[in-house]
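#struct-help
A.M.: can someone run this one for me? Single chain, 241 residues.
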Amino acid sequence: MSGFLRKIIDLLLPPRCKKCGRIIGDDDSLCETCFNQINFISAPYCSRCGRPFEDISGLKHDHLLCPDCAREKHPWFRFGRAAVHYDDFSKPLIISFKFYDRTDHALLLAKWLKIAGKDIWAAGADMLVPVPLHYTRLIKRKYNQSALLAKELSKLTGIPVEYSALVRHRRTRPQVEFSGKIRRRNVRGAFSVKHPQKFKGRRIVLIDDVMTTGSTLKECAKALRSAHPRSIDLLTVARTT
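D.P.: on it. Structure tokens below:
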């Protein structure tokens, strides 16, 4: 698009903040007020799962593990990372993207994913794999928010996306209806791999919008492990803990 045409479009339809709707200078962004309200996750955090530490003053934290990861003798993923805390400031942005057709949020959130995944990119990644929806929910919602995130992240990183080899073959209730152990039971055995040869020996990055207990991502990883990938990483826009 030419610069002149871009100026005409901006004059008629000026860029607006994705959160509050205020007119701003750039597309796919937030105004300064809304941006400053977003709680981005930064160090110190668990070197494996990315869970933020509240206070480890005076300690070197490059390789510290949270209690859960320290107890895990055989970790089911290499790295887990998230861009922001899932709180009152980020939640409206993600909910509108996920449930209310604000698919225009995808690029902004993918930019956050790229920044949050710096440890993953440094270690190497071959393939982005969005957490799949059951086909009945996909028909109802019309799009898979995780697939949209993976598509935009692929454009930013050059890492290809595999959309169809990991499938959700069993319809499950929305995870938001449950907590704890019930979440794990709800998604147990819900995923399978259609073309395992696509994943063998590859470094896979699972993409989703929010990590709560990690039950959905763990079940996806369990299915993917049967295809013998080289590694599995987790990357989400937000996390609750």
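A.M.: thanks! The mean pLDDT is 90.
D.P.: also worth noting: The chain has ten helices and six strands.
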